[in-house]
Amino acid sequence: MEKEKKNILLIYTGGTIGMKVDQKTGALVPFNFNQIVSEVPELGKFGYDIDAISFDPLIDSSDVQPGFWLKLADAIERNYEKYNGFVILHGTDTMSYSASALSFMLDNLEKPVVFTGSQLPIGMLRTDGKENLISSIEIAAGTDEYGHAIVPEVCIYFDTMLYRGNRTTKYNAEYFRAFRSPNAPVLAQAGIHIKYNIENIRYPHEWGKRLCVNRNLCTDVAVLKIFPGISEKTIDAVMETENLKAVVMETFGSGNAPTSEWFISAIKRAIVRGIVVVNITQCLEGSVDMGAYATGVALRDAGVVSGADMTFEASVTKLFYLLGQNIDRRGVAAMMGESLKGEI
Questions:
Q1: Tens digits of per-residue pLDDT, 35-62?
Q2: What's the rounded Cα separation, in Å, for the pair 225 and 249?
């Protein structure tokens, strides 16, 4: 019996991976992703039908805004029934934000949505782009014996590693291994073969549900990074931001912050006004535990919500999502402590 041919959609949004050197000027210019097989002939060996669409205009990932995520989600929804999987080519600087946002926006996802990119343009001799692209496509096409996707999640693939998208952060601007998932194991690793860590992958409780896109995002969120010497004026400037609904507070160690009376009072005033304050650690690895030290207990007693071991990117985009769902403060606070898409 002949196997069904796999259909993969590449979505090129911009970024280093889609550049090549113009032979006349020597400048880096985007290439036409509709001709991707001619640029990366190795793709022809898969035997997949690979289509490509490009954003117009292309976007530098530093310019990513929530409207861009809506565009991405719409592209996936429009093409969802036609393709086995999706590969999103994206600049590395904000890739973790985009992957986190899409993970919350796409409900009942049963197909792979794999973000990838590169540190060097795909047309350069030492590029990491070809391997990242080739492996991402193979992962996006991967199915089990029942025809179900092996990785039905929003992921990031980079330098032989497949990560859950909302568990990643970019930590290196110079080396090919640009991303890290400090608090969650990898979903797969590519060597001679792609080794899937099935026990780490999230699967639907029930297959066959219709994809649902959550389009309502609220960005009335601020960030407060705690540092020695932080002043009351700084705290008040953040907490009194117009229309503010939530604050991501980056604290020391396992969720600790100053215990000065003025500091705790400022946090309490904000919470009484209905602002959700989420505590995440400045450490790359580890989790918030507001019961471990007196400094953390004071925050907990003030009504601060633990962000557990969420990345900064996931905590911000999760708040955007929850605040857009017309849920009251208590509901948002409760759901920030729950793992909705494997982010905790």
A1: 666 677 788 788 899 998 989 888 888 8
A2: 6
Active-site residue, selected from the candidate residues 13, 16, 169, 281: 16
How is residue 133 written in tokens? Answer: 């692209």
Instruction: Report the domain count for the chain.
Output: 2
In a domain, 172, yes or no: yes
| Annotated catalytic residue 92 | no
DSSP H helices in the chain: 36-39, 66-79, 95-105, 129-141, 232-239, 261-272, 294-302, 312-323, 329-336
Burial of 227 (0-12, 13-18, 19+ CB in 10 A): exposed
Phi/psi-derived region of residue 153, left when phi > 0, alpha when psi is between -120 and 50, beta in every other case: beta
Cα dihedral 89/168/245/60 (nearest 10): -30
Q: How far apart, in whole angstroms, are the C-alpha atoms of residue 139 and residue 151?
A: 7
* Phi, psi for residue 164 in degrees, rounded to 5: -65, 130
Residues 6+ apart with CB under 8 A from 235: 224, 263, 266, 267
Global pTM value: 0.93
CATH code, domain carrying 242: 3.40.50.40
Closest CA to 135 of 181, 90, 194, 85: 194
